[in-house]
Amino acid sequence: MGVAVSTIAVARQARWRDFDWQLTLYLALLLGFGVVLGVSAAWNDGPVPAGTIPEPVKTVVWSVVGFTLMLVAASVDYHWLRTFAVPIYVVTLGLLVMNLLFGSVVSGAHLSVSIGGLDFQFSEISKVLMVVVLAAFLASRGQRVGKLSTILGAGLLTALPTALVLRQPDLGTALVFIAILGGMLFISGASIGWMALLLGVAIALTPVALGVLAEYQRARLLCFLDPGADPQGACYQLVQAMNAVGSGGWLGQGLTAGHANQLGFLPVQTTDFVFTIVAEELGLVGGIILLALFGLLLWRMVLIGWQARDSLGRLVAMGLATMILFQVVVNVGMVIGLLPVTGIPLPLITYGGSSTVSILFGMGILQSVRMHTRTETF
Amino acid sequence: MSSEFGERDLPRFGRRFATFGVIGMLLFTVLAGRLFQLQVIEGEARAANAEAARTVAVALPSERGVLFDRAGRPLAINMPTWTAAVRPADLPESRRNAILGRVSLLTGQPFEALAGRLDAYQGSPFDLVPVARDIGRDAALLLEEEAADLPGIELQVTARREYLDDHGAPDGTLLAHVVGYTGPINADELERLANEGYLPDDDIGRNGVEASFESALRGTYGSELWERDATGRLVKPLEQTKAPVAGKNLVLTVDAGIQRMATDALLWGMREANVSQGVTIVMNPQTGEILAMVSLPSYDNNAFAGGISDELYQSYLADANLPLRNHAISDIYPPGSTFKLATGLAALQEGVTTPTQRWQTYGCYQIPGAPAGDCLYDWNHRGFGKLNIVEAFAISSDTFFYQMAVHLGVDKLARWAHALGFGAPTGIDLPNEASGIIASTEWAHSQGRAGVYTGELAQAGIGQNVIAVTPLQLLNAYAALANGGHLMKPMIVRGEADASGNLVREYAPQVLGEVGATDENLRLLRIGARQVITTGHAYNIRDLRLPGSLAGKTGTAEFGLPDANGVLPFHSWFVAFLPSAPGATDSPIAVITFTYHATVIGNVSTEVVKYFLQQYFHTSQDLRLDPVTLRQLVGGN
């Protein structure tokens, strides 16, 4: 990264008039959507135990923290990221190692580290940081981006954190890493031929990968292939979720009135299966509205990427867009039986402070890209 | 676009960007399409599946019908009973012992028993596990008060049967064999009756009317649809899909007051004569209604209703006098001389004798075809000279009836015995009725024999050896004699009642069949039965002033093995009815008493019937014989 010196030299003022209010609005609407769903999910659970704060309230607090971080990140020229790409990568690995060493299981394999009474899921921020790292790497490849070495280099950079989260074992985050890698390589202009070849090798190794998976992960995959295989056991969640989605109909059963949601047929209702609440209580209309909000958000994100003045900005924007798109498609897809259940949260909707803050932080970088887009002449 | 850092823009960015956008839109379209498929196309089916998963039909028990006697006295009622139950999922593990300890203290049941029942439970932790049954109202109230401090403990209120006597006191022994009892359903019954809506913790009628009228008393369970959560816990009722239909209240034909008199009389006689088992049945011969049915010793059906202790149950089973059996219908005995009704009627009908034909009687009757000296004694070992059939019936000459039976042949005798209802259940609506034994060629074949020996046939003529009947069959045969030849089906339930015991639907008496004898022949035997009282040896019962002309027949039946003195143990019978005049068919009452293994020579059963009639008609006389006199009486049959 021999261009670091010149990067410092051209750092410039942020142009706040270019701050993307639409992007911010969609983020706020999605977060609000999540809060409403959280309230509905907890509606019939009885009083919250003394000394604990209800999930929706926490989400609001974390959103405030996240938006503040967004403003901070927006005000910093994103070119600094290239300067600190290596430390960022090291920090990312360090966080994931900490997660492995000190993390405690929240649900399934979502490890979190408790610091000062707050739980942090470092895997969430690591996804955003990996976008930054890969963007810096790919942007630095310049004309050599079409070479096999680009793919191998990016693959190696991704392999380490992927291996760390798989150790947890957090299959969902690992898949997000791989998706980010694939999406960013594609956008970067990497060789389709080499990528296809490597993809072929990866598919050939799938049976081996299945052997690495934990028993419950394999069972979930088999359920996806045949939901009727074990409706009372491993496939229970999926069958219940699909029936709950189906019973939503056009307009849904109304907030706080979804039977499956309120009666606990969806044990992880506010996390991985949160979309079932949308579908059951708000119906097809509600589901389409939520998807449309995500569509608008993604539209603003790729627009920022399109208008970015350099490849680093483009790659950051498209990397984050890939992350959001992949998570939305996989999360909703698993709830409606299109994809296997893998434990990937629905961005901004699934309850979780770490995820919310991480994504808003990433969006801050995106704002920075937008606010530093205009080509300046000196 | 260019970069001021001298980097070229990303190669092929335009196309890659466009492709990215197209892929993204395609993916969203697929998601939306799938949502449309699930929610609109498959929506109703999936909603139905979800509905089925979250609702459950809960049975609504129907109230069991209560039983009244014919005077409207309640005999079997439903009492609330409280059960302390644990829902394991709600019982905090850390306070488990403290909570169970408190329940133990409040209910007075040992901690180990409560904990044991909880530990033995294997099912869902959200189901209720009964740990202390029938805890009583006070304990239930205390538990209710402390409910907030006893998480996981729930009170269940269920109905338990309580059986009452003629005074309304909770004493079921008076009518235990008639009323019966309910008890928990067992696994086999549950499997067999699952289609009729029986549940694992249901009670079912186990004996008496409780068993024979089970379906009428039980009613029909209703059903209620409940919403349940994913763990199976019931959340709230949604709708009643089927209302429960309460069981029918039944009025028995039995009058508890008459049952009490019959019981007192029988108890007295059994005590005086040192008899261990006895039966008294009182019937209306015109309708077949049973007014009293006493089988002693009895048992406590309330003990069964509350969950009988193993100790008590084993003691019942071990009792040689079989208190759990209704001797009136479930056991068969040789009827002795009372059976001369069947032999006499057959002889008249088949023309073996005319009413006036006089037959020589003997001290000992030489069995035809048997070696000389192989003879059967009359009861006085001397004979009575020449007798016609009425005289022979009144005096109960054995040798007269040996001759009748031998001249009839076994199958004609059997035919008329069957016509009087012997050899088949009477069809009374009580469980476990026996058929009895009536000798015939067919019967002999079924025993693997060629036929019946003449000696056996002669003895059959006096109700011995190859003849066995239930006390109810014998009473019913005499009832048919008393009413003019109609063999009635003995009735134990008179009809259905409202909640206060007023009859709202009366069951009609049923005629099992006509005896088929001529009125004249039946009348002759009624006259004979009257003469048993007036000239025969029914002792001083003739002196009892009754509103009618008492008629009857005694019987003494030897059975078993001779004692040290060569004397066979014997049963004693007395069956009686009370027409307004000798030979009339308007008798409103017929009574039978049977005493098992009498140890005095006099007929104890006659004394019991006498004492019963004294009470029934409130006579000022007390003609009961003292035990000393009873023992000194000349034996007779």
The helix content of chain B is 25-40%
When the domains of chain A are counted, the total is 1
Biggest sheet strand line-up of chain A: 1-2-3
Beta-strand residue percentage of chain A? under 5%
Query: What is the CATH class of the largest domain in chain B?
Result: Alpha Beta
Give the % helix of chain A. 55-70%
Q: What is the CA–CA distance across the termini of chain A?
A: 24 Å
Number of strands of chain B: 25
- How does the overall form of chain B come out from the CA principal axes? elongated
Give, in order, the helices and strands of chain A: HHHHHEEEHHHHHHHHHHH
Describe the structure.
The complex is a heterodimer of chains A (378) and B (637). Chain A has 378 residues and is mainly alpha-helical. Chain A has one domain (17-44, 55-371). Chain A is 67% helix and 3% strand. Chain A has 16 helices and three strands. Chain A has helices at 4-10, 21-42, 55-75, 80-83, 85-102, 122-141, 148-166, 171-188, 192-204, 206-212, 215-225, 236-246, 259-262, 274-307, 311-335, 353-371; strands at 104-105, 111-115, 118-120. Chain A has a three-stranded antiparallel β-sheet, covered by helices on one side. The longest helix of chain A is centred in the C-terminal third of the chain and has 34 residues, at 274-307. Chain A is globular. Residues 1-10 of chain A have low confidence and may be disordered. With 637 residues, chain B is of the alpha+beta class. Chain B is elongated. The longest helix of chain B is centred in the first third of the chain and has 29 residues, at 13-41. In chain B, a hairpin with an 8-residue loop joins β14 (364-366) and β15. In chain B, strands 2, 3, 4, 5, 10, 20 and 21 form a seven-stranded mixed β-sheet that branches. Chain B has a five-stranded antiparallel β-sheet with strand order 12-11-25-24-23, with helices on both faces. Chain B has a three-stranded antiparallel β-sheet with strand order 1-8-9. Chain B folds into four domains: 13-41; 56-73 and 164-252, Penicillin-binding protein 2a (Domain 2); 79-163, Alpha-Beta Complex (Penicillin-binding protein 2a (Domain 2)), CATH 3.90.1310; 256-300 and 326-632, 3-Layer(aba) Sandwich (Beta-lactamase). Chains A and B meet through α1, α8, α12, α14 and α15 of A and α1 and α2 of B.
